[in-house]
Amino acid sequence: MSIATCARRLSGLYVFLFVFIALLAPVNAQSAPLPQPVEQSLGTLLDLSLKRNAEVNPQSFASLLDFVSQAKGDARDLVPARRYDANGTVLRVTMKTSLQRLMRYCYNPAIPSYLLFPSVLRLGGWYKGSDIVDKDTKPWLHLGKLDKPVALWGSEYEVNAPDSFGGGYYRYDLNRLIILTKYNGKNMLISVSKQKDKSTVGKKAVILDDGDFSYFYSGINGLNKGLIGWADTFMYDSASVQVFVEEGPNQTSFMLFKWLRAGWAGMNMVQKDHINEGSTRYAKAFKRIMESDKLPEPEEFAQRVHELTSMSDAELERKISAYSVAIENIAKTSPAMDKSEFQKVVEGGKYSRTMNREERLSAILVEYLKSRLGKTPLVDFTGMPTVVRHKAG
């Protein structure tokens, strides 16, 4: 038998073993399905996300709004029905912030989404033609006068941060629907996403320090995962429905319903536990950022983003060079970076050569966020103006 034939058979065996192990992932004995009326409401909203300018009737998804309003606990034991041939999960979180304040950050097209969700996103942005860019750039202004629902459609792109399971990152496009409505006397925000096509091929990445929003992106195809590192993987499909409920002047709860299908050769390797882990990382970092009394006011934050994204090529080169050297130094002591292919990317401070301008700006902006949150950034921002800090609310 030739060496090539042996290699192919061994590769096939590794795939079989991985699939077998994935299918044996533990299932929580106390897990419970969602009520059928709630499932129907989720389907209604996901369908609406693909029907721009369709009529929005809250009664068609009232079961979901009732369910979310009455929910308690973190909800991770709930199991939504499979959709788009994908497994799903549910998560519930309560935050000490008003819905309006949350929207002034998260639904402000002048503030990149990855600055609110740095633990799960590397890049993100709205495409031209989206309502929130061309029609309604301050949707939070509707909160005081919701006599009828307000719906905004659009499309976005995202590049995810590496997950702790496979360490892959992908670029993909999403249809997005935002609905603002008042239900049973409470302001509610519904955000619905549906992936358009399969993602670009997965590339290897490393979590350097999740609590510090520090990640390494190699630019090398594959997964950062032992026996399956050679595989060409894709995000085949994803969808989410997120419902925010204004519980009081300084409290908002949200419930996230998330589905994901990813893998290789058409096979889905994503289990509920994997989605749970990613959703928990997202919620934990998002809550920490939004509840911080060090977070700049949204208007100031947007202004600093504008200043940094408008910096000259020379200034950006100076900052990204310092960032690259810092990543190289971290790589010297990180066990996850102990691979020759990764060391070649960072050695000599040349990490920045793998990045385009948008990726460079993203790295610098996240470091700026860290500097404002009281973390130690990898880049010097001395001289940038600041204003008086506020209390979260």
Name a few traits of the molecule.
single chain, Alpha-D-Glucose-1,6-Bisphosphate, Chain A, domain 4, 2 domains, alpha+beta, 13 strands, disordered C terminus, 393 residues, three-stranded antiparallel beta sheet, 33% helix, eight-stranded antiparallel beta sheet
Provide structural commentary:
- Residues 1-29 and 387-391 have low confidence and may be disordered.
- This protein has two domains: 32-291, Alpha-D-Glucose-1,6-Bisphosphate, Chain A, domain 4 (2-Layer Sandwich), CATH 3.30.530; 294-393, no CATH class.
- It is built from ten helices and 13 strands.
- It has 393 residues and is an alpha+beta fold.
- The chain starts with a helix and ends in a 21-residue tail after the last helix.
- The strands form three sheets. Strands 3, 4, 5, 7, 8, 11, 12 and 13 form an eight-stranded antiparallel beta sheet that branches. It has a three-stranded antiparallel beta sheet with strand order 6-9-10.
Short description:
This protein has 393 residues and is an alpha+beta fold.
Class from helix and strand fractions: alpha+beta
List segments where confidence is low: pLDDT < 50 over at least 5 consecutive residues: 1-29, 387-391
CATH class of the largest domain: Alpha Beta
CA-based shape = globular
CATH architecture of the largest domain: 2-Layer Sandwich
> How would a textbook summarize the main sheet?
8 strands, antiparallel
Helix share, percent: 25-40%
Provide a count of the helices: 10
Question: Helices and strands in order, then pairings?
Answer:
Elements: H1 3-23, E1 32-33, H2 36-48, H3 62-70, E2 78-79, E3 87-95, H4 99-106, E4 121-126, H5 131-134, E5 150-160, E6 168-169, E7 171-183, E8 186-195, E9 203-209, E10 214-221, E11 234-248, E12 251-264, E13 267-268, H6 272-290, H7 298-309, H8 313-331, H9 340-346, H10 357-372
Parallel strand pairs: 1-2
Antiparallel strand pairs: 3-12, 4-5, 5-7, 6-9, 7-8, 8-11, 9-10, 11-12, 12-13
